[in-house]
Design a protein that fits this description.
The complex is a heterodimer of chains A (about 775) and B (about 120).
Chain A (H helix, E strand, L loop, with lengths): L4 H6 L1 H4 L1 H61 L11 H11 L5 E6 L2 E6 L1 H4 L11 H13 L3 E7 L5 E11 L2 E11 H7 L2 H6 L2 E8 L6 E4 L12 E5 L4 E7 L11 H51 L3 E5 L5 E4 L1 H7 L3 H4 L4 H4 E3 L4 H4 L4 E7 L5 E13 L2 E10 L1 H24 L2 E6 L4 E4 L1 H7 L9 H7 L5 H14 L3 E8 L5 E12 L5 E10 L1 H51 L3 H33 L6 E4 H11 L1 H6 L2 E5 L6 E4 L1 H17 L7 E9 L3 E8 L30 H11 L3 E7 L3 E9 L1
Parallel strand pairs in A: 22-24
Antiparallel strand pairs in A: 1-2, 1-5, 3-4, 4-5, 6-7, 6-9, 8-9, 10-11, 10-15, 12-13, 13-14, 14-15, 16-17, 16-20, 18-19, 19-20, 21-23, 24-25, 25-27, 26-27
Chain B lengths: L1 E5 L3 H14 L4 E5 L2 H10 L6 E4 L8 H7 L9 E6 L4 H8 L4 E6 L4 H8 L5
Parallel strand pairs in B: 1-2, 1-3, 3-4, 4-5
Helix pairs in contact in B: 2-3
Classes of the chains: A alpha+beta (about 775), B alpha/beta (about 120).
Chain lengths: ~775, ~120
């Protein structure tokens, strides 16, 4: 799997992608330069050929000029007569000039002295000049004679002005030198006729050069004004004049090889090739690098795998398809107590007991539990995770074996504990609930449903529960909930609930809070205990106690009445009898007996009053019914019709028509009668008397208020206990003081009470509290 | 000598007058029918009666209220006896709290008892 180094070095190319790229670059660049050079050479040759062709045309023209000049001079020479003088020179010269446009003038020089010129006006200044002696023309003239043929001298500046050339033909008569017959050609004409000037227009430049025979220096005529390289020119030699004609291509510019499109294209191509080469060659190197990395990772993984295999807290077993143990880790050997050599003698099925009937099925499962048999025949409870691998078409199994003995034990304990707890909850009728705040979901134990009388499929919501709370306890319940949510602390409180079938139950709620890792409230849970029975017993007990206290109080009250009122009479009787004993006078005795009669009458009244009070007590069990209040008021008004009329009382009845109280109806009539007649008695004759009846309710009482604007009572200075027996007031002579006492007793016996507020001249206010 | 009776019981008043006149005809008896009448009188006058027999249960102003309201210095020459038909223990206990009360007497007052009361004043 690991590539050997030589293998790696064999691919030399792949290992030097940069060098290879450079080589590719050089080769392609070199080839492109080569092509560029070749191309340039071909082009140059073509140019040279074109130049030579042009030069040939110039040569032809010059040859034409020279020939026509020769013919002209020869024609002139033929005009020489026998005396040695030209005959009709002007005539002949004119004809010759007309027929030959290449020449500008002719002359004849006998013995070297110019004596005939045509056209005269232009050339007359040359007359008489001896060319054989004239410094400028001397050498060429002599050379012409020596050569014995026509020779063109110049270009030079003529004596008669103008730059031009002179073609002289030496004339020999009878082998005796006669002189020269010559043509004058202006340089300008020469250039025009030879076609050299025309070439100038086509981008070429032709020019003439000659070694000055006098100075020996080379002179150039019609040379280009710019600098030029004479080496780039091609030349033509005209032997009859000693001229060299040069032709150069003025447009010809130096072609730099580097600018050749071939080179530029080649450069790009080379770069491209170099780059591609680099890329292509680099790929294997990258792959190599990748492989090396993977190899290292693989090695690392293998080390890790080894470490895990040996050091993991689980037993690991490697089986082949025949259940033979290929490899096991130390943990397995430690747990079972076998050595590796021992363990290889077993098949895996010999080492494990499972619920599965057939072993062959076991390894089809990904997970199974069983008992691992140790060397000492003890068993370990295990959970096995089976990974089946296919290697070269052969199944192998890697088994991870976890010792779950302890887990099983604690699971069993937990199960026991749970069943115990469930039993305890069932027996104690304790309801258990949980409220998960995040999901706002509420979970109830079965007992909770029973407590509330809900069906078990009821969808539990906070509203539903809040609605089940007794209306008088809702406020307390909400307050407790707010407290728990804000303090995140549990609480214990009592409250009543109304079950589905409208039964009221007393509950003891214990609430606990579960906080999450961030200290936030995650769950609220608690128990609910039905304490209705206990509560009712307690309430009954309290009722009984209260009743005993009340009765005790009434008993004291009663004994007080007896001690004060009854004893008053008895002591009087005693006093009278005492006196009677000492009286001798018959009249006085009679007086005493009359007195005694009065006393016994009073005693009888008191006794009958007391009897009424006692009767109230006995009637306590009288019929209690729902009594509508309004008709009773009307009834009382009717009974007191006369008193109301006499005292001109105006009754304002603000009692609602539908108001009812549950009360003994005869008591109610008696109480209202007593109170209202009492109020009428206290009415103030000086003002318009009003009695106002109002009704209201509070938590535990239905309240009837009777207010008046009468004379009122001074409760401060009079006996404050106006509801006591025989409490009487100033100017209240017709009251025996028993009615309010009886009314109050009747109210008390029904669980109600009477309150009196009054001030002298300010009117009074009786408040009747009827228990709900 | 003067005896003042503050009591609403007309029969008792009559009996006391008879009894006292039988003991000593020279004793003047002054009667108030309730505490308020007595209080109003002694608001203006200093008490000249040597003995005051004060009932507890009376309309308008009872015996206790009377004792609470009077100026004690006006009674410095008088002995106040609480006389009541009540044999209630609570009244007897309450009477102990009033230093001005000479004694707590339960009705009816016998001839002997009255003699005992007036004894110091009869030469």
């Amino acid at each position: 799997m690991i590539p050997k180094d030589n293998q790696y070095f064999d691919n030399w190319f792949y290992n030097h992608p940069k060098l290879m790229a450079l080589i590719a670059f050089c080769v392609i660049l070199f080839l492109s330069i080569l092509i560029a050079v070749k191309d340039s050479t071909i082009k140059n040759n073509e140019k040279e050929r074109a130049l030579a062709q042009k030069l040939r045309r110039v040569e032809d023209n010059i040859d034409q000029i020279l020939k026509s000049s020769y013919v002209t001079t020869l024609s002139l020479a033929l005009t020489i007569d026998l005396e040695g003088n030209p005959k009709d020179f002007d005539e002949v010269a004119k004809k010759l000039l007309n027929s030959n446009p290449n020449i500008n003038g002719v002359e004849m020089a006998k013995d070297g002295v110019i004596n005939y010129v045509y056209p005269y006006e232009r050339n007359n200044e040359a007359l008489g000049l001896n060319v054989l002696e004239y410094e400028i023309s001397k050498k060429e003239a002599l050379y012409t004679i020596e050569q014995g043929k026509m020779y063109f001298a110049g270009p030079f500046y003529f004596k008669q002005k103008g730059l031009g050339i002179i073609g002289r033909l030496p004339i020999f008569i009878d082998n005796q030198f006669w002189g020269f017959s010559a043509v004058i050609i202006d340089l300008d004409t020469f250039l025009k006729k030879s076609g050299m000037r025309r070439l100038n227009k086509d981008g070429y430049h032709a020019f003439l050069s000659k070694i000055n025979p006098n100075t020996g220096e080379r002179e150039f005529f019609n040379a280009p004004q710019e600098n030029f390289d004479i080496n780039n020119a091609i030349k033509l030699r005209v032997e009859d004049a000693g001229w060299e004609i040069y032709l150069i291509n003025i447009n010809h510019k130096t072609h730099y090889l580097i600018l050749s499109p071939f080179v530029i294209f080649g450069l790009f191509l080379a770069l491209l090739f170099a780059f591609l080469t680099f890329l292509i060659l680099k790929k294997p190197a990258q792959l190599q690098h990748h492989i090396r990395l993977q190899t290292r990772k693989l090695l690392n993984s293998e080390i890790k795998y080894r470490a895990i295999f040996q050091e993991v807290g689980l037993s690991v077993v490697h089986l082949d398809e025949n259940e033979q143990l290929i490899e096991v880790n130390g943990k397995f050997l430690n747990s079972t107590g076998f050595t590796f050599a021992e363990v290889t003698n077993f098949r895996f099925s010999d080492l494990i007991k499972t619920n599965h009937d057939v072993y062959s099925n076991i390894l089809d499962h990904e997970k199974f539990e069983g008992h691992l048999i140790c060397k000492n025949k003890s068993e370990i409870c295990v959970r096995v995770i089976n990974s089946t691998l296919n290697l070269n078409n052969r199944k192998t199994h890697i088994l991870l074996i976890e010792d779950i003995t302890e887990k099983k034990l604690s699971e069993k304990k937990l199960k026991d504990l749970r069943s115990q707890m469930e039993m305890a909850i069932r027996l104690s009728k304790l309801g258990y609930w949980e409220w998960d705040l995040a999901s706002d979901s509420i979970t109830w134990s079965n007992e909770m449903y029973e407590l509330f009388g809900f069906d078990k499929n009821t969808q539990l919501t906070r509203n539903l529960i809040a609605n089940s709370v007794h209306e008088d306890d809702v406020e307390e319940y909400e307050q407790q909930l707010r407290n728990i949510l804000s303090t995140r602390k549990g609480s214990t409180f009592e409250g009543r609930i109304k079950t589905e079938d409208n039964k009221v139950k007393h509950m003891l709620a214990r609430v606990d809070c579960d906080l999450n890792d961030f200290g936030e409230l995650a769950k609220i849970k608690g128990t609910l205990l039905d304490i209705t029975d206990k509560k009712e017993i307690l309430i009954n007990l309290q009722h009984s106690y209260q009743m005993v206290v009340e009765q005790n109080e009434r008993f004291l009250n009663f004994s007080y009445i007896i001690s004060h009122n009854l004893r008053a009479h008895s002591s009087n009787i005693q006093g009278i009898i005492e006196l009677i004993k000492d009286i001798d006078d018959k009249e006085e005795e009679l007086q005493m007996f009359n007195l005694l009669e009065n006393v016994t009458k009073s005693l009888d009244e008191t006794l009958s009053d007391l009897n009424e009070v006692v009767r109230v007590r006995q009637d306590k069990e009288g019929i209690i019914e729902n009594v509508p209040l309004f008709p009773f008021i009307k009834k009382v008004e009717n009974i007191l019709k006369r008193e109301i009329k006499v005292n001109r009382i105006y009754i304002i009845n603000e009692i609602p028509r539908d108001a009812t109280i549950s009360f003994n109806s005869s008591y109610l009539e008696s109480i209202l009668l007593n109170i209202i007649s009492n109020v009428i008695k206290f009415s103030n004759p000086d003002v318009k008397s009003e009695i106002k009846l109002t009704y209201q309710e509070n938590k535990s009482y239905k309240i009837v208020k009777v207010e008046d604007n009468g004379r009122g009572m001074d409760l401060e200075t009079n006996n404050s206990d106006i509801l006591g027996m025989y409490s009487t007031f100033k100017d209240f002579k017709n009251s025996r003081g028993i009615s309010l006492f009886v009314s109050n007793n009747q109210m008390q016996s029904m669980g109600g009470k009477i309150e009196v507020k009054s001030e002298l001249t300010e009117g009074s206010e009786f408040t009747l509290y009827f228990k709900k | 000598m003067k005896i003042c009776i503050i009591d609403d019981d007309k029969i008792y008043q009559l009996l006391m007058r008879k009894l006292i006149s039988k003991i000593d005809a020279n004793i003047t008896v002054k009667v108030f029918c309730n505490g308020e009448d007595a209080f109003n009188f002694y608001k203006e006058n200093t008490c000249t009666s040597e003995i005051i027999l004060l009932d507890i249960n009376m309309p308008k102003m009872n015996g206790w209220k009377f004792l609470d309201n009077i100026e004690e210095k006006k009674f410095k020459n008088s002995k106040i006896y609480l006389t009541t038909s009540s044999i209630a223990y609570s009244d007897k206990e309450k009477a102990k709290k009033y230093s001005i009360i000479e004694d707590y007497l339960v009705k009816p007052l016998t001839k002997e008892k009255i003699r005992e009361l007036i004894k110091p004043y009869i030469i």
